[in-house]
Design a protein that fits this description.
Largest sheet of chain B: 6 strands, mixed
Number of helices of chain A: 4
Shape of chain B: globular
Helix content of chain B: 25-40%
Number of domains of chain B: 3
CATH topology of chain A: Alpha-Beta Plaits
Shape of chain A: globular
Strand content of chain A: 15-25%
Structural class of chain B: alpha+beta
Radius of gyration of chain B: 25 Å
CATH superfamily of the largest domain in chain B: Aldehyde ferredoxin oxidoreductase, N-terminal domain
Strand content of chain B: 15-25%
Oligomer: heterodimer
Largest sheet of chain A: 3 strands, antiparallel
Number of helices of chain B: 25
Structural class of chain A: alpha+beta
CATH class of chain A: Alpha Beta
Order of helices and strands of chain A: EEEEHEEHEEHEEHE
CATH topology of the largest domain in chain B: Aldehyde Ferredoxin Oxidoreductase,  A, domain 1
CATH class of the largest domain in chain B: Alpha Beta
C-alpha cells in the first residue's frame, strides 16, 4: 500500500524535500517555504490513523534517556482531547539547519552527521542555552530542553533519527499502528486520489 | 520539584526501598481552607501497590461514618499507578474513590478513567491527590509541577465539557491536561461524570456531582518532569506481548453498515480506532467521526459497547460461551473484540464449537435503528457530562417499556411532547431538562433513575411487567421483565442475566450478580466474569456449588483491585494464561520483585479495606446485600430461570467462607484482617462491635426471601389469566 505523508510536504528522492511551515505552527515562519531532509512523518489516516497512544514520545525518551517525559522526547504529539485526531510533531531536519546555525558551540554541542546530514546534539558539550530551541522555525519548537534540578545541567534534545541505533528510529519501530515512517518512504498523491486499496 | 532524573527518584529520602515508577508524592488540596500539602507515596507502597488500593487505605483512615456524597467531609481521592507514564500498556489509566452520589443509597464507591491526565500528573511529580473540603465559589485547580493553585472558575462555570476543556487549553496551553465536569455536575445531577480526554469519564460513581458539591469545575495539570521505569527491556517485552498488539496500520474506514452481527443497519460513516490513554499498545476504542450533535454541529465520539445499543435496541447484544469461558487456543482479549482486531479462530481446538457457541439474545423491540438519534444522545451525555449507562440502559429502556405498557399516558414528562423514545426532539428536551434540573421532571430524573422511580411510585414504575420481551433461546417464548432495569445499588443491569447484555448462562450471571452485590455500583467495568472453558461443564452442572466458579468469582474481584492499582484495564487484563502478567508489569515499573501471590494478597487486603469501609461507614450486612440483589435474580433469564433462594444463599456462604467472612453477618473475622496486615482495622471494628463470632457448625436457616413486587405482579397476572381461561 502506498504510504501518504500527512504533513503536506513533497519529497524528491531519498533525503531531500521542500515544505511549507504549516499555519498551525503559529510562529513567524508560518507559510515560509524551506527545504527539509529525510525526517519522521505521520502517514495519512487513510493509511493508518494515529491512536493518540503517544508510544512514539514514550519510547523516544526510554531509548535515549531511560525515562519518559515531554521534555525528554524528541518527538511530540499535538493531542486533541475532543476530536481525537492527533498530529505528530517531528523535527523536519531542515536543510538550512537554523538550530545548528544558532548554536554558540557549533560542531561541538550542535553537530552535523557527515554521512546523513542529520543535526544532532552532543550533550557533553551542550550548555543548555536554548538558542537552538528558539531558532527552530516551528512552534512549538521541535527541540526540547531536558531539565535538571540544577538549571546549569539543562540540555537540548533533538531528533537525530536514532543515529547509531541499528534498528533505526524507535518511534517508527514501536508505533502500534505503524502510522509513522520516514519521509523518504512516503509519497504525496495528487488531490482527490486515495491510496491503493480504498 | 518534579523528578528530572533517575537520581531524583532514587535519592528521595522517603524512598527507602529504592522503588522506580512512582513520583513519590500525593497532593492534599483543601478547598475549604485553601491549604495545599503533600504526603509521601512511599508510606503506602509497595504494600498498597498504587491506584485503588491506596485510595481505599486513605479513605479508611480519613473518612468516617455518616459522611454523605455532598458533605464537605467527603473526599475525592485520586491515584495513578506505578505503571502510569512508563509505557507499559494500559498503565495510563487511573482510579478514584469517594462517597458516590450515583450510588443508592450513598456509599463509598470507586471508578477508573483513561485519558492523558494521569500521566501528566505524574510528570508534575504526583502519584495522586486528595480533594477535600468545599470551596465557597466555583474554582478550578491548576497544577504545574510544584505550583498548585486553587483559582476562580467563574469563566468556566456553566460551560459544557468540551467548551471547558477548550477554555482551559486556551488559557494555559495545550500541554495542560484536564479533568472537568459539565453543567450536570455543577447542578449536582447524581449521574454526573468527570471527563478527562477521549470521551473517558469517571462514569458510574456520580463523582461529577461530588465535584459540583465542592464547587470544583476542573483540575488541569502540566508537568515537566519524568517517569522512570526500572526495567526497560522488560517493559518493551510487555509492549510486544501483552495481548499481541497488531503492530500494523489501522486506517480510517469508510463504512456502510453499523451494528453487531445480526443487528446491522445501513448508514454511511467513518470510523477510526484510538487508544484511551498514553502508552497503550492496543486501539480498542472505536472513533465514530463527524456524527451529528445536539446543537446541529458535528463531532467525533467514542463508541463503546453501551453506545451501540443507543442506536438500535430491537434485540439485546449477542454473546458466546467462550466470551466468559475461553479455551487457551481461542482466547481473545476484550480489547481485540472492541477494536475489531480479532485473531483468526483456531479450528484445531477440540472445544472450538462448544466455546464459540453463540447465545442468542432476547428480542425487546424497544427502538428501531437510528444513527442520528443515537449519536445525538451520546453527544449530550459526553458534552453535559452524564453517565451513558444510566441513560442508555436504564432511562431509555424505561421510557420505551413504560410507553409501550401505557404507563406514561397523559404525561409529557415536562417536554410538551408525547413520551416516545424514538422521537429525537422528545429525548433532547427530556435530557436537557435533566442535565439542567429544569422543571419538575428534570429535577426528578437528575436524582437518578432509582430515586426518581421511587418518587414516581415504585410498584407501578419499577415493577410493572413489560410484555414485549421474547427469548430467542426458547424459540420466541415471551418472558416477563420489569420496566425498570435496575441491577443493584442504583445502577443499571450489566451482564446480569436479564436486560442489557442479559443473555448469558446461569453460572455467568450468578457470578456477575454476586460481584454486583458485594460492590456499591456496577462492578462490570473491571469485574467482567472470566473463567476457563475446562470448568464450564462443572459450573453448568451445579452453578451454585461449583468450586471453580467460586474461585473464579474471587479471582475476578481480586483482579479488579489489581487492575485499578498496578494500573491496567478491563480490556487488557487479566490474561487467563499469563497469570503473572500484572506482577511482571509491576516489577518492570518499580524494580520490586513482585510475585503473583503477593499481588493477590495486596488485592485481598484492599478488598478487605473496602469491606470494612462498607461495614463501618454504611452498615453493610449479608441480609442487606442479598436484599439488594435478590430482585434481579428473581427476574427470568433467557431460559425462563431464576435463582433458587436456598441454593443462592449456599453460594453466598461459599463466597464468604472463601473470603474469611462470617456467613451470618458477612463481616470478616479478626483473623482475616490480621492475616492481611490489617490488625489496626480489626481493632477498630472490634471497638465498634463489628467483628463477628465464629458460627456454630450446622445447617443454616436463611429465612424467607425478600419480597419482590415484580414477582408478585407476574404471579397475579398469571392467576388472572388462568382465571379468565377458567371462566
Amino acid at each position: 500500500m502506498t504510504k501518504v505523508a500527512r504533513d503536506g510536504y513533497t519529497f524528491y528522492g531519498k533525503q531531500k524535500g521542500v515544505g511549507t511551515v504549516p499555519e498551525e505552527s503559529r510562529g513567524s515562519a508560518a507559510g515560509q517555504e524551506f527545504s527539509c531532509g529525510d525526517h519522521i512523518v505521520q502517514y495519512s489516516p487513510e493509511y493508518s490513523f494515529c491512536t493518540g497512544c503517544v508510544s512514539c514520545t514514550i519510547v523516544c525518551g526510554l531509548s535515549h534517556e531511560g525515562v519518559t517525559g515531554r521534555s525528554n522526547s524528541r518527538i511530540q504529539v499535538d493531542l486533541d482531547a475532543r476530536s481525537m485526531v492527533h498530529t505528530v510533531l517531528a523535527c523536519q531536519q531542515c536543510a538550512d539547519r537554523p538550530c545548528y546555525e544558532a548554536c554558540p558551540k557549533k560542531d561541538s554541542a550542535m553537530c552535523v552527521d557527515p554521512e546523513t546530514g542529520v543535526v544532532y546534539v552532543d550533550e557533553e558539550n551542550c550548555i543548555g542555552c536554548g538558542k537552538c530551541m528558539r531558532a527552530c522555525r516551528f512552534t512549538p519548537s521541535r527541540i526540547s530542553m531536558k531539565r535538571d534540578r540544577d538549571r546549569k545541567k539543562w540540555k537540548a534534545v533533538k531528533c537525530d533519527l536514532c543515529r547509531g541505533n541499528p534498528d533505526g528510529p524507535q518511534c517508527i519501530r514501536w508505533c502500534p499502528v505503524q502510522c509513522l515512517g520516514l519521509s523518504s518512504g512516503s509519497v504525496l498523491l495528487p488531490d482527490g486520489v486515495r491510496p491503493e486499496g480504498r | 520539584m518534579p523528578n528530572y532524573t533517575k537520581k531524583d527518584i532514587l535519592e528521595n529520602p522517603a524512598n527507602t526501598r529504592g522503588l522506580y515508577g512512582y513520583s513519590g508524592r500525593i497532593a492534599r488540596i483543601d478547598l475549604t481552607t485553601g491549604e495545599i500539602s503533600t504526603l509521601d507515596t512511599y508510606r503506602y507502597v509497595p504494600e498498597y501497590v498504587g491506584g485503588r488500593m491506596i485510595v481505599n487505605r486513605i479513605f479508611w483512615d480519613e473518612v468516617g461514618p455518616g459522611v454523605g456524597a455532598f458533605d464537605e467531609a467527603n473526599k475525592f481521592i485520586y491515584m495513578n499507578g506505578p505503571t502510569t507514564g512508563t509505557g507499559i500498556p494500559a498503565g495510563g489509566r487511573s482510579a478514584a474513590g469517594a462517597v458516590g452520589a450515583a450510588v443508592d443509597p450513598e456509599q463509598f464507591t470507586w471508578g477508573n478513567i483513561g485519558g492523558w491526565f494521569a500521566t501528566e500528573l505524574k510528570y508534575a511529580g504526583y502519584d495522586g491527590f486528595i480533594i477535600q473540603g468545599r470551596a465557597e465559589r466555583p474554582v478550578h485547580i491548576r497544577i504545574e509541577d510544584d505550583d498548585i493553585q486553587i483559582l476562580p472558575a467563574d469563566d468556566l462555570w456553566g460551560l459544557r465539557v468540551h467548551d471547558a476543556q477548550r477554555a482551559l487549553e486556551e488559557k494555559y496551553g495545550r500541554e495542560f491536561k484536564s479533568m472537568v465536569i459539565g453543567p450536570a455536575g455543577e447542578k449536582l445531577v447524581r449521574l454526573a461524570t468527570v471527563t478527562s480526554a477521549n470521551d473517558c469519564v469517571f462514569g458510574k460513581g456520580g463523582f461529577g456531582a461530588v465535584w459540583g458539591s465542592k464547587k470544583l469545575k476542573a483540575i488541569t495539570v502540566h508537568g515537566t518532569g519524568v517517569v522512570v521505569p526500572a526495567d526497560i527491556d522488560k517493559l518493551l517485552y510487555l509492549r510486544l506481548h501483552m495481548n499481541n498488539p497488531s503492530m500494523r496500520p489501522s486506517p480510517v474506514l469508510h463504512l456502510e453498515k453499523f451494528g453487531v452481527p445480526g443487528a446491522e443497519f445501513d448508514v454511511k460513516y467513518d470510523r477510526g480506532n484510538v487508544a484511551c490513554s498514553p502508552g497503550c499498545n492496543q486501539r480498542c476504542n472505536a472513533l465514530m467521526m463527524n456524527g451529528p450533535t445536539a446543537d446541529g454541529g458535528s463531532a467525533n465520539h467514542i463508541e463503546k459497547c453501551v453506545s451501540t445499543s443507543t442506536y438500535n435496541w430491537q434485540t439485546d447484544l449477542p454473546a458466546t460461551v467462550g466470551q466468559f469461558w475461553p479455551t487457551e487456543k481461542n482466547y481473545c482479549a476484550p480489547c481485540k473484540l472492541l477494536g475489531r482486531d480479532f485473531p483468526e479462530p483456531d479450528f484445531s481446538d477440540p472445544d472450538f464449537e462448544a466455546q464459540a457457541k453463540p447465545i442468542r439474545p432476547d428480542v425487546y423491540n424497544l427502538w428501531k435503528p437510528d444513527y442520528e438519534r443515537g449519536t445525538v444522545i451520546n453527544d449530550i451525555c459526553n458534552d453535559y457530562g452524564i453517565d451513558k449507562w444510566e441513560i442508555d440502559v436504564w432511562l431509555l429502556t424505561w421510557l420505551a417499556m413504560c410507553a409501550k405498557e401505557g404507563l406514561l399516558e397523559g404525561s409529557d414528562l415536562g417536554t410538551g411532547r408525547t413520551p416516545d423514545v424514538e422521537d429525537l426532539e422528545f429525548l433532547k428536551t427530556f435530557l436537557l431538562n435533566l442535565v439542567e434540573r429544569r422543571g419538575y421532571y428534570g429535577d426528578l430524573f437528575a436524582e437518578g433513575m432509582a430515586r426518581a422511580i421511587r418518587k414516581l411510585g415504585y410498584e407501578k414504575f419499577s415493577e410493572s411487567i413489560y410484555h414485549g420481551r421474547y427469548s430467542a433461546e426458547l424459540d420466541g417464548q415471551r418472558l416477563d421483565i420489569p420496566v425498570s432495569l435496575h441491577g443493584g445499588w442504583g445502577q443499571s443491569v450489566h451482564w446480569q442475566g436479564r436486560g442489557y447484555e442479559g443473555s448469558v448462562e446461569k453460572p455467568t450471571w450468578l457470578a456477575a450478580n454476586i460481584n454486583r452485590m458485594l460492590s456499591t455500583r456496577d462492578a462490570n467495568t473491571v469485574e467482567h466474569f472470566h473463567s476457563k472453558f475446562e470448568y464450564h461443564e462443572e459450573a453448568m452442572a451445579d452453578p451454585y456449588h461449583s468450586p471453580h466458579l467460586i474461585e473464579a468469582i474471587i479471582n475476578v474481584q481480586n483482579n479488579a483491585e489489581i487492575k485499578d492499582s498496578v494500573m491496567s484495564c478491563e480490556w487488557q487484563s487479566p490474561h487467563p494464561w499469563w497469570p503473572e502478567m500484572e506482577a511482571e508489569m509491576f516489577t518492570a515499573a518499580t524494580g520490586y520483585a513482585m510475585t503473583p501471590e503477593e499481588l493477590t494478597r495486596a488485592a485481598e487486603r484492599s478488598k478487605l479495606l473496602f469491606r470494612a469501609i462498607l461495614i463501618r461507614n454504611h452498615g453493610r450486612t449479608r441480609r442487606r446485600e442479598i436484599e439488594e440483589i435478590w430482585r434481579v435474580v428473581s427476574i427470568p433469564d433467557s431460559w425462563n430461570e431464576t435463582a433458587d433462594w436456598q441454593q443462592f444463599n449456599e453460594m453466598v456462604d461459599l463466597v464468604y467462607e472463601a473470603r474469611g467472612w462470617d456467613p451470618a453477618t458477612g463481616w470478616p473475622y479478626r483473623e482475616t484482617y490480621e492475616a492481611h496486615g490489617l490488625a489496626d482495622v480489626a481493632d477498630r471494628m472490634e471497638s465498634l462491635g463489628l467483628l463477628p463470632e465464629r458460627p456454630k457448625p450446622g445447617p443454616r436457616d436463611y429465612g424467607e426471601p425478600p419480597r419482590v413486587l415484580f414477582v408478585e405482579n407476574c404471579r397475579k397476572e398469571r392467576q388472572a389469566r388462568a382465571g379468565l381461561s377458567n371462566e
